[in-house]
Amino acid sequence: MQTVLAPSALDGRPSYQLVYAAFHSPLGYVRVVDELRRLAPGLYLGIGAAGFAAWQRRIPFPFLLQGPVAPYRRDVGWPRRRFDLARALQPPGAVSRG
Q1: What is the phi-psi region of residue 43: left when phi exceeds 0, alpha when psi lies from -120 to 50, beta otherwise?
Q2: How far is CA 59 from the centre of its chain?
Q3: Which residue among 12, 63, 65, 70 has its CA within the 20 to 30 Å range from the CA of 43?
Q4: Does pLDDT of 9 surpass 60?
Q5: pTM attached to this predicted model
Q6: What are residue 36's DSSP bridge partners?
Q7: Please, are residues 30 and 52 in contact by the beta-carbon 8 Å criterion?
C-alpha cells in the first residue's frame, strides 16, 4: 500500500491513509482505502472502504488496531504503473477532471 496524510472521506479532518491500489494485491484490486486515527498510545481506530463501484466505497468498515507488535521488516510488492494517488483518494462518485 501507499501511505499518505490526507483529508478523511468521512469528515474532512486529517487522517493517515493506506491506499492499497498503488500495488498489485487482492486489496488493491478491490480498491481498499483504510483511514487510521490514533485513539491512545498503541491503539488506533481504522475505517476501511472497498469496492468496484462508488456506492460500495461509501460503506465504512470500522476496525481497531493495536501495536506495534513487531519491528518493521521491509517493503514488499510490485507498484502499479501510472497509479494516480489523487484520483484514488477522490470521494466515491466525484467527477474526475482529466
Answers
A1: beta
A2: 13
A3: 12
A4: yes
A5: 0.74
A6: 16, 46
A7: yes
